[in-house]
Design goal:
Elements (H helix, E strand, L loop, with lengths): L11 E7 L8 E7 L17 H14 L2 E7 L1 H7 L1 H15 L6 E5 L11 E4 L7 H22 L7 H4 L5 H10 L11 E5 L2 E5 L1
Parallel strand pairs: 1-4, 4-5
Antiparallel strand pairs: 1-2, 2-3, 6-7
Length: about 200
């Protein structure tokens, strides 16, 4: 069972991102403030849930949350500032959009760039420990998936509808064959091993 709070005195928001390891598309992040006594039987890290369950939970999270927001950093910005900083920036943008200002942040992972003067705690595998981070992981994941499905129609050969921009074999083969689209992260190296020879796009 996940925990409702990391601390009990301040208004707390959980934050997480989705799409950090992808070859194409933006990185999305979400920030969620849940009621102090929030509880749920199945809410968990988005990676542990099926797609249909994630979308069902998204609707419930948005209904029950005190505040929630999503932030986005596109592939061009990712190439300019690197994916780690882009992940932090996406979280900052999500936090800034919350209609209720959090007094404390709990962040999935082990690193974070401080947001203004708000204190925070970094929690490794936090999306499997705290409801608010798990909720943020679901919002970030589902809204990013929606975006990738939308742009998949422009470039069906890259199979984004299924791989969501991650570096599957089919995706990498298509990059090596057709080149980059305007949605690809140019700072990410793409390699594919064929008959013992590594082919690379840089």
């Amino acid at each position: 069972m996940l925990l409702a709070r990391y601390q009990h005195e301040l208004i707390e928001a959980g934050c997480d991102e989705a799409g950090r390891g992808c070859l194409a598309g933006p990185v999305f992040a979400a920030a969620v403030i849940l009621p102090h006594d929030f509880d749920h039987a199945i809410l968990n890290d988005s990676k542990q849930l099926t797609e249909s369950v994630r979308y069902a939970l998204r609707a419930e999270i948005e209904q029950r949350a005190i505040a929630h927001a999503v932030g986005i950093v596109d592939n061009v910005e990712i190439d300019e500032i690197n994916i780690l900083n882009a992940s932090f920036l996406a979280m900052h943008r999500a936090i800034a959009k919350l209609h209720l200002k959090p007094q404390y942040l709990i962040i999935d992972g082990n690193r974070f760039n401080k947001y203004e003067t708000t204190p925070h705690a970094c929690i490794i595998q936090g999306d499997g420990k705290y409801f608010s981070i798990a909720a943020a992981s679901i919002l970030a994941k589902t809204y990013r998936d929606d975006y990738m499905k939308q742009i998949a129609a422009e470039h069906p050969e890259y199979d984004w509808h299924n791989n969501k921009g991650y570096g599957t074999i089919k995706h990498r083969e298509s990059i090596l064959k057709n080149g980059y689209t305007p949605y690809h992260r140019r700072s990410f190296k793409v390699t594919l091993e064929s008959d013992g020879v590594i082919i690379q796009v840089v």
